[in-house]
Design goal:
With 166 residues, this protein is α+β, with helices and mostly antiparallel strands. Helix content is 22%, strand content 25%. Strands 2-3-5-6 form a 4-stranded antiparallel β-sheet, sandwiched between helices. The radius of gyration is 17 Å and the shape is flat. 25% of the residues are buried.
């Protein structure tokens, strides 16, 4: 395969290559875009690391900073990375608890992609002397990915990664 053609899921993209990109300062799930997965016959992980994620505390409006890790096994669609960047940026002025942010991100990506499996992990920097690192996952019902999700949930912190964002 020498590359993706315009007809292979590229014609519907509006953000990639657009020099007039506008950043939304309000939560904007509508900016998410996807393209066809050209390798849907195999399982593989797609991983994104966003070390500059920010949101606001819903009570104090103080900023919260995190590295957001998103990993998923795609099925028919993959997320376009520029749209994901703009989507994550839209949390900048969004007031929600850390746990809500990771679950909202996961839910929006499930709605967009219908992945086989997905997990979202937010490693938030400490504020007030404590850090919060919520982790959530999902396996498509009725598939082997439910068992994978259960296993990863029960074992996700068995071998903690080196935390390098604090």
């Amino acid at each position: 395969m020498s590359g993706r053609s315009h007809d292979e899921g590229l014609k519907d993209l509006t953000l990639l290559g657009n020099q007039g990109t506008k950043y939304s300062f309000d939560y904007a799930p509508e900016v998410l875009e996807s393209v066809d997965n050209m390798h849907s016959t195999r399982d593989y992980f797609v991983k994104f690391n966003c070390p500059e994620f920010t949101s606001l505390c819903p009570i104090t409006n103080q900023p919260d900073f995190a590295t957001m890790y998103i990993s998923y096994i795609p099925d028919k669609k993959i997320v376009e990375s520029k749209s994901l960047k703009l989507y994550l940026f839209s949390f900048r002025n969004h007031g929600d608890f850390h746990e809500d942010c990771v679950n909202i991100i996961m839910n929006d990506l499930i709605e967009l992609l219908d992945p086989r499996y997905i997990e979202v992990w937010g490693k938030f920097t400490p504020r007030g002397g404590i850090s919060i690192d919520p982790w959530c996952n999902y396996g498509r019902p009725g598939t082997k990915y439910v068992e994978m999700a259960d296993f990863r949930l029960m074992n996700h912190d068995l071998y903690p990664e080196k935390i390098d964002n604090r």
